[in-house]
Fold these 3 entries.
Entry 1:
Amino acid sequence: MQHDQDHNVYLEWLYLEADGGLAGSDRALLQRHLLSCAECRREREQLPALFDLLSSGRVEVREDFADRVMSSLPPAGWEARHPRTWTAAAAVLAVLIGLSALLVGLSGGELEGVGAVVAIAELFRSTITAGSGLLAASWHGLGMAIGEVVVGSPVQTGVFALFVLGVNVLFVRLLMRSWRRPVAERLGRDSKRSG
Amino acid sequence: MTNESPQKPDVDLIAAALDGDQERFGELVRRYQGRLVNYLYRLLRDYGEAHDLAQEVFLKVYQALDRYNPKYKFSTWLFRVAQNAAIDQIRKRRLQLVSMDRPKAGNEDQGTWEFPSGERGPYGELRNIERGVAIQESIERLPWEYRELIVLRHYGELSYEEIATLKGMPLGTVKNKLFRGRQMLKERLSDFMTD
């Protein structure tokens, strides 16, 4: 019984050996077993033919395959998801400043110069405070916009809605930048560590 | 001894591709195209379809390149995507009620068998074709659990460890299933192992 069990283990090892996957220490044990097992010796002689036969069944890849793959690559989606420059964030910020200036202007106040800048900064601060989180800011902004429909002009309401939306877009982009360091950088570091 | 410079690690090629050097992704394609096409060909049994699906797999991988986790080998990830794509394709075929027993009718493009045998002339060619068909049929008749491991090892050329990671199996189970699968193949292909 014990012999059969061992024999089956050695049989499995023979296949591993033929495939280059048998550890050195096991190889020595296998050699010892082979001295006393004619069946395993026969099996061992046949295995190279089986492995050759299997690898002979490979097909050739079309010559132009790699070129076809490369010419059909779409613009990389990840490039847009993880921008490596601040251009987009800066553009969104510029639009927001424009929108907030417009809001201050539309409010009918008499602010000029430093006062206007302070008002714009206050607008940013109050939006950030009101949001206290991306989703909260959206819903709060929506609520405020709805309130404006009742008391303000439609133009003012639309501009305010755009403002809230813009702040959220800016937040999302900035958070994505800080949460996910550029992948290429990460891979570079990891590869150096493992190398 | 060759003058070839050592291959760049996959992870370096990915990092370079993510930095905008698309040609490095081309290197990855050329590095894996043979193994991937052969793997898919053995599962789908259609030379053209294997190429089309391999192309799709490379495109999917390219689009998700920024999500690659360097903790795992690139080959493991690539073959996981390929495996899912192949299973989807097989499901689609079943839905279309296409017979799984024979290659598609009218498909002349079945690739080239690469047999190292020195046999020439009509008899040799016939023998080569018979051998190719026998290998294919023997693999197809294997239970799926053995078949996919045999194909991953002998045509995808993944290591035992890579297969274990890909399939989420203990290494010992992978070795044992490969052993059983190979034993079945040996029995079925015995006529061709004496050539």
Entry 2:
Amino acid sequence: MDYIKHKVPPVREDRLMACQAYGGTCGDLSTESKKGCLYASKRTFSQTQGCQLNLSLGMISSMRDAVMVIHSPIGCGGNLIQNAGINKVFQKLRQESAVGLRWINTNLSEVDVISGGEAKLRQAVLKAEREFRPSAILVFNSCVPALIGDDIDGILDDLQKQVSAKIVPIHCEGFKTKIQATAYDSVYHGLIRNLVGEDNTAKPAVIRTPEEEIEHQAKISKTVNLLNVGSMSRIDEEELVRLLKALDLNVRILPSYSHPDDFTYAHEAALNVSICATHDDYFVEHFKQMYGIPYVLRTIPIGIANTNKWLRDIASFFGIEEQTEKLIAAETAELKQAIEPFKAEFKGKTAFLTGGEVRILTTAELLHNLGFEILGLRGYHFDKYGEILLDEYLEDVPNSEKAIFNIGSGQVFEQANLLSKITPDLFVGHIGVNGSAAKQGYPIFPLFGQSDDYLGYKGVYEVATRVSRILKNASFNKNLGKNTRLPYRDSWYEQDPFTYIDDSASIAARIG
Amino acid sequence: MSKVIERPRYVCALGGAIGTIQSLPRAIPILHSSSGCGGNLAGALSGASGYNGGNYCGGQALPSSNVSERDIVFGGEGRLQEQIENTLKVMDGDLYFVVTGCMVEMIGDNVHAVTKRFKGEKLPVLAAETVSFKGNSYYGYELVLETLFRDFVEPAPVKDAGTVNLWGVVPMQDVFWKGNLGVLKSLLKKLGYETNTFFGQGETLENLKNSGKASLNIVVSDAYGIEAAKVFEEVHGVPYITVPLPIGDHGTSRFLRTVGKALGVDEIKVEKLIQEERKAYYPYLERLADVYNDLDFQRYATVVGDPNYTQAVTRFLSDDIGWLPELVVITDILGEEQKERVLASFGEYESGLRPEIVFDEDASSVVGYINRHWPQNQGQKYHKGFAPGVIIGSVMERDTAEQFKVPLLPVTYPISNRVVLNRAYVGYSGGLTLAEDVLSLVVAHR
């Protein structure tokens, strides 16, 4: 993969042929996906979703000592407002002196649309530098400047000569893609181009004696970049660091909640360890291409099976299989005993999951392992990485071919319809769609949370205890179910949930 | 040239329009915009507004045409037509309202031409071009009201002397909008009037449709809803007054006198109502006679936020509870004419207070104004600063309050560190609630 020399990364519809509209079963999806034409389907009725700009902010607005410039009319990045007074808490878990969320919106007006927004962009970047003296200024480009043709890279190149903060342009114009996850590529693209590597014009290169160099290289040979995600908690990070340290590895955590300087030496690592292919494939492929650093990308360490797979992938790279098997054996023996009581409790219960493809398939396996029967899944989108995990899931979880698989970002009308028909005992959801399921009365376990643990072996136990607690009293949601109404006609629930998915183009693509 | 803004406390016209429509009973917004617009704004409309949720149809339930690059090239009108047709089939509402984002404006889609095709059908489909680079949330609120007044409110040649309409309390931007509208409605009831607030508890679209028969429109703001009032007057011949948002005895008594005068209510009747309300109000404050004075509850205050609340809170602090709100920072984007009207609402204090009022949209500027008003100790032995102080603002003032080691009560948007349900700060009852909240902060902060 080599897109880094381009100003703008490709969208995922093109790069990964990602699908954003599908309704069927896990078994069908596994078959259909291999034909490679699902990307062409669309909806003739749709609800709003997110765009790559707001997911870009979700991924990297947590960066410490950075100021974000959102080059747009005043509404873009609006979701930041709800985090304005809160975000600092999570940053402080990484660095006591963290200052929290700072952003500037260029407030593009009608005049700017006609005469160009360049002057406002300049103003915003200079203001960020003057007011806050940050280490980095992240500039998020939006639909409007892209359409009026603002040359943001040209302006930012020029501004870089005037400011000491490192400027990172992020091309995340919402209208370019319906696959929000393109955001991850856009952000990584900007970070790789602008933060990775020493800037020898600013400070002299590090000089080491031969002995020091050997020591340095030895350290690098045992260092991994652990790629975290914005939805992950500090406790999750600690669990993964615990496991990697048990294998005698040094861990550098990127990119969420990182400091801009953390990227400078990111290429001094033996291995990139991803926990989510949706999030990281662009980054790890480029690091392999540019710096020859291999990667682990298959799965997220959620549940025993996938945590084991994740550790084994890392072990086989370092040739430490024996040590790893010992760790796995000790951890799983202890954990299996701890979760045994939950298995009886959850036996015969059913669940439905919705969220990112990687996270839902692995969390489904975790719940299956705890005794749940999985009735269905909804993925935000689906691509080759989902395909690999889906096939592993079909293998790990017997009789799962018939479970529902629906693909759509948000599109809660389909979810509401499905839930009226398959009535699970537990709904596991991504933020944004939980309220809708709550109004149908379901007990809800959030798919992720920035304050809770989900990952690694500890995560399995903690998920079990929280699910158990939530199932003990679902009165709040039951009351909502009885006393509120979702905004859909009764007739909608009588229809096929996938009525508004139009796959004619995908069929045409397959035949043609 | 408009300014760049550091941490704006509002979103775009589209966001304001969505927030306004989703606060109407059984109204369904239809977004003709890029796929991310609704998702981008959802947090601002819910989490930042005291966890308002999406009401009946908001958040990810919002129908949206989700136009993308292909539509930008070929135009999005066909997609909009399809989206409206299918929205009518799936979504259960009594009013459908198309609002637009930047991209469809830039590609030149004619939404009115599309919605016109749905005219005469069973359910109304309205449209407004809520172009986001033309204004912020408040502009979106105005546009939605103007459209409703022109295209939804039915002509009523005969007026009803006992009915008034009231707006200017902007849903979401006023985090306590629903509670506040309820209080104002019951106050006017005591004065003998039925009030349509459009968005408050128990309102119906039927009331809105018939609001043309009102005898007066009361705009409870010196900044917002005035353009809509002009449209209402032009289309339906109903005059309007503007009156500041009232909190506590002094604010609310002025409110009742202004409204009473405009409606031609007998002055004696108005004064009688004020006396009755005071008889209920002061016995509560009376409870604090000891503690307020034993512990010296008087504070300096900095008030930060929109023009509606800042003037109301300043008057309440100054004249009802005897504080010193000497500094006011107004954070909205206002024109010169608006600024003049707003400034005029900060006067005639019983206490003789003359607050310093600044207009600045940037969140980080507040620190500088506090330091200018109450210069920091430069090592002097004898020094008078912002102490004892309190900040009444939004959650964005959290860091500022920490820096000055003073308590913060978030009252203005955004509020993400409180959950808000039916709490109201307006009227006499709201004054007591505000006194409770702000004085609790003082006792708890000891």
Entry 3:
Amino acid sequence: MTTVAAAPPASAPRRGGRRRRVREAGLGYLLVLPAVAVFGVFVFYPFVENFRLALYETPPYPGLPSHYVGLHQFAQVLTSGAFFQSLLSTLVFVVMVVPTGLLLGLLLAVAARRRLRGMAAYRVIFSSTVVTSVAVAALVFGTLMDPVVGLLPWLGIDPRPPILDNPTWALPAVAVMAVWQFLGLSFVLMSAGLSSIPEDVLEAARVDGASDWTVFWRVTVPLLSPTLFFGVVVATIYAFQTFGQIDILIGPANAAYEHVNVLVYNVLTTLQVNRTPGEAAVLSIALFLLTLGFTSLQLRFLERRVHYGR
Amino acid sequence: MAQVHFRGATKRYGAVLAVDRLELAVADGELLVLLGPSGCGKTTVLRMVAGLEEVDEGTIVIGDDVVNDVAPKDRDLAMVFQSYALYPHLTVAKNIEFPLRQRRIEGEDRRRRVAEAAASLGLTELLGRKPAQLSGGQRQRVALARAIVRDPKAFLMDEPLSNLDAALRVQTRADIVALQQRLGTTTLYVTHDQVEAMTMGHRIAVLRDGVLQQVAPPQELYDRPANTFVARFLGSPGMNLVPASVTEPASVTEPAPGGVPAPGAAPVPVGPPGDRVDLALAGGRLALGGEAALLARKASSLVVGVRPEHLAIDPAGALGARVVIVELLGAEVQVVCALDDGTQVVVRQGADRPRPAAGELVRLAVDSGALHLFDAESGVRLAVGP
């Protein structure tokens, strides 16, 4: 019958199709394998291992066995006074770095848009902090803040106690450097954001009677909001993770160290000075959750105020 | 409402002269169209009025004030941009009220004006929407509403119809004309579309490479173009231009150059022999009489212009030609012909007339009363007087 006769040719291509799909899928898995392997070894495994480590108490002397304590270690670390001090330092640091870094970046970007002779050179200079290594920048700032050869003695101000050893000024000093270092990225981000704003919309506002100030606040800033939002998220994560600056400028041997012991630095000192990997693991989980929490809060509440072009 | 005067207004971009010593007066309440091909400087002229481009030399006067150094916000103008330039983060209502807000017009007055402007452009239903939620035509109307919501000294419109589809463009064109008539606001309207210019402008200013070519009412521009550029730019298609030389009148029986006998060459006008000349062009001859003959005699070499509607396919025509393409446009037909010397001309005829086929050899009759004469070198129209 016709149906019987029609069946084989109909099923043949289907079988061929399945074989092709399997082959394609196989090739796909093969191609992502290197990436999965690299991420697995350097990201996923340490990530999971960190959670496991947080459940074990490790004695500070090498060679002694660690033993399982479960969530008890979390409670112990996260309710300690040292943790609150560290958390507070972190939040203060974020509050100092994020708005300043973004506003200065925006200011520079607005200034760099003026069509002036030599502006291209300034743009390169403004964005150069992105490619400056933390170590080099920290040495420069360390010298600038040095109590003997630094900027303040040169200006005739006697910095006693030295800024970087001063419990009040050590953290702001690190923040200044962190802002400086973030400025390059902030400038590049804001410049890109500004150049995506259609020129004629700004011109329309000027013809409609708006002053430069009004154009900036009523048109430029709202149209820049996606960039500003992205900048806030990136800057917050950057501030949460500032480590090298603190390590090189202050270091764990400094008297003011306790006041700059932000979470990410606390993880290191707990590991290397206190030699308690379990506690360090708990702290790094706390930092992870804090960053995650902040970012999702920003996504949830800040993004509502963001205007995306279309 | 105000007059707008350009007095030697000049704009340079580096070595490029974008607008060259523009002298132009736009009357109070007039709709003046700035027409020209892209890159001719017409948008620059508009932007100079708006204050978005600095005037390098000369002055621009709005009303009684020289505005060269007046900031855009203080010029009291309203501009409609080609891209509409709506504020994408604001609703239609907020877009329309933006200029009022800047001028501290508050409360009930502002609400009433926004409502009126929106109503007159059919936007009342859309007041709560953002520009991204509107169609092209709707955005265009919001841009217009934002311009008319207050009573500026002048409207500046930069190709406001170029992003609309053909049908909508015709409709909006009529709407803008009606709106301008109702408000009586001085309007500068920039376009590269000569149909738009012809249908909308009280007067048209034709620009080319930053130089003003001619300012005249549409019909005069069409009937008496000042030079070959204007002649070709206006009309669709533009005027046919054929180089010609002046010779003494030939007898009717004399064969035309090229050995082809001219069956009934163009009729020789009656008058004294000195008043008549022949034009030798594209392997044919045209007889001229009267004023045109006097003009032709003064020029060494000239270009003859004739509108497509003043050419006809006629076995008794003076010029030989080969049909290249026949384009049917519904009510009319455009026949593109190559004259004997290769010059292409367009003949416009009614669709009811017999249609030649491509490749066919035809003869073209010229309405000698509708000839335009231009100087071959300068391209300037030959005119009576000094």
